């Protein structure tokens, strides 16, 4: 019981770190951008602690030293202006502000630098991939203009590569945040914001919308999936030109499923280069870890999503499909087809 107070800072850290969800913490930075930002946070924290300690120490000293004592009624010496003191307490804050400002301004320029020049000396380009991120109520679209790829919900990136990101929105204001990789930036309709990030190691990084954007804002999650450059190349090639089995699936159930999909879904969802873009591209849907950003990937949840999408994510653009629209048999075939949409395995 004696050390119970220690739980206080621990619980605070847990709170800040998203209660142990993997790779969702700005306090566990990965990659150069997040590390830069984390060290700025640390620097300002240390300066604030320094100011706090000094000010409180002086304050307590003054209270104790100059308090009214019993029987002492004399008025203490009244002081107006003290040049030395004035100079000290003007200079110290200026120095502290400079200590904050210089690294902040320098890092701001580094973070805003979207050029890929490897420097004057070698004249080579930095390895990079461009991604246009469009936020929709309540999902994310990732377009790779140089690779002819459009992906939904999962943003695949190669490790150790500069990812140059352009942020846009198709409706209201959203905000793109992958805490472990980079600080947030807004997706504003009509404006393109830019940022970059790098992931040094493979991993799955949680992303969130951090701008209240409607009734299902809190479910607008996505993932950044960092894979080695070879895997990324395979992914990009297969996304751009999907393997034949996606359009003409094998097995009767999968074939029927494709039929249902073409009837009810393809106006909004693309598989390969066929289909609409009102909803996420589903070319690699079978490789998602979650459905619609937050439901565990399994067939029960997928069926629930198709039947009750409006209950599961109120206000999203997809209609719910009841038994009249898609009967039980068709549903089974559709689920099997959706689950077969894989481009990395096999
Ligand atoms: C009117 C357009 C529209 C139609 C028709 C439609 N969807 Fe959707 N769908 C969407 C939108 C928009 C989303 C994104 C919802 C969100 O997360 O906000 C979505 C999301 C999904 C998701 C989750 C995607 C992911 O990346 O996790 C699946 C799976 C899906 N739809 C399957 C279907 C199937 C199967 C059909 C046909 C039975 C269908 N949809 C019909 C618009 C549509
Ligand atoms: Cu949003």
From TrEMBL:
Domain called Cytochrome oxidase subunit II transmembrane region profile: residue spans: 18-115
Domain of life: Bacteria
Chief place where the protein resides: membrane
One Pfam family in the UniProt entry: COX2
Keyword Nuclease assigned: no
Compartment(s) where it occurs, according to its Swiss-Prot or TrEMBL record: Cell membrane; Membrane
Cofactor binding, per record: Binds a copper A center.
Catalysed conversion reaction: 4 Fe(II)-[cytochrome c] + O2 + 8 H(+)(in) = 4 Fe(III)-[cytochrome c] + 2 H2O + 4 H(+)(out)
Segments forming domain Cytochrome c: 252-342
Residue span(s) of domain Cytochrome oxidase subunit II copper A binding: 126-238
EC numbers, comma separated: 7.1.1.9
Gene Ontology BP annotations: ATP synthesis coupled electron transport
InterPro entries, A to Z: CcO_II, CcO_II-like_C, Copper_CuA, Cupredoxin, CuRO_CcO_Caa3_II, Cyt_c-like_dom, Cyt_c_oxidase_su2, Cyt_c_oxidase_su2_TM_dom
Record-level GO cellular component terms: plasma membrane
Cofactor dependency: Cu cation
Keywords: Copper, Electron transport, Heme, Iron, Membrane, Metal-binding, Respiratory chain, Translocase, Transmembrane, Transmembrane helix, Transport
Membrane topology (UniProt): Multi-pass membrane protein
First-level EC class: translocase
Transmembrane stretches, start-end: 44-66, 87-106
Functional note: Subunits I and II form the functional core of the enzyme complex. Electrons originating in cytochrome c are transferred via heme a and Cu(A) to the binuclear center formed by heme a3 and Cu(B).
NCBIfam families: CoxB
Protein's name in the database: Cytochrome c oxidase subunit 2
Organism annotation: Salipaludibacillus aurantiacus
Lineage, top ranks: Bacteria, Bacillati, Bacillota, Bacilli, Bacillales
């Amino acid at each position: 019981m004696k050390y119970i107070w220690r739980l206080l800072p621990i619980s605070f850290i847990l709170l800040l770190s998203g209660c142990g969800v993997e790779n969702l913490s700005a306090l566990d930075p990965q990659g150069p951008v997040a590390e830069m930002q984390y060290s700025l946070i640390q620097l300002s924290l240390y300066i604030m602690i320094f100011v706090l300690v000094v000010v409180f120490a002086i304050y307590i000293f003054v209270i104790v030293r100059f308090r009214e004592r019993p029987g002492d009624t004399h008025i203490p010496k009244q002081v107006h202006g003290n040049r030395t003191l004035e100079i000290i307490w003007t200079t110290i804050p200026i120095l502290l502000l400079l200590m904050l400002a210089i690294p902040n301004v320098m890092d701001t320029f580094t973070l805003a630098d979207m050029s890929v020049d490897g420097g004057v000396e070698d004249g080579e380009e930095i390895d990079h991939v461009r991604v246009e991120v469009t936020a929709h109520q309540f999902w994310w679209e990732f377009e790779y203009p140089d690779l002819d790829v459009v992906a939904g919900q999962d943003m695949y990136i190669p490790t150790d590569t500069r990812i140059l990101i352009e942020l846009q929105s198709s409706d209201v204001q959203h905000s793109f945040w992958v805490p472990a990789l980079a600080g947030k930036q807004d997706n504003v309709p009509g404006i393109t914001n830019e940022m970059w990030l790098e992931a040094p190691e493979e991993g799955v990084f949680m992303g969130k919308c951090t701008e209240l954007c409607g009734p299902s804002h809190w479910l607008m999650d996505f993932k950044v999936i960092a894979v080695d450059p070879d895997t990324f190349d395979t992914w990009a090639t297969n996304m751009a030109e999907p393997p034949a089995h996606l359009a003409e699936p094998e097995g009767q159930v999968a074939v029927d499923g494709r039929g249902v999909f073409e009837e009810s879904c393809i106006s909004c969802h693309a598989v390969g280069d066929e289909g609409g873009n009102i909803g996420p591209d589903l070319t690699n849907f079978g490789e998602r870890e979650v459905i619609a950003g937050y439901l565990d990937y399994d067939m029960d949840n997928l069926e629930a999503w198709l039947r009750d999408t409006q209950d599961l994510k109120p206000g999203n653009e997809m209609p719910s499909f009841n038994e009249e629209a898609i009967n039980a048999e068709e549903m089974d075939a559709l689920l099997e087809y959706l689950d077969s949409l894989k481009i990395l395995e096999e």
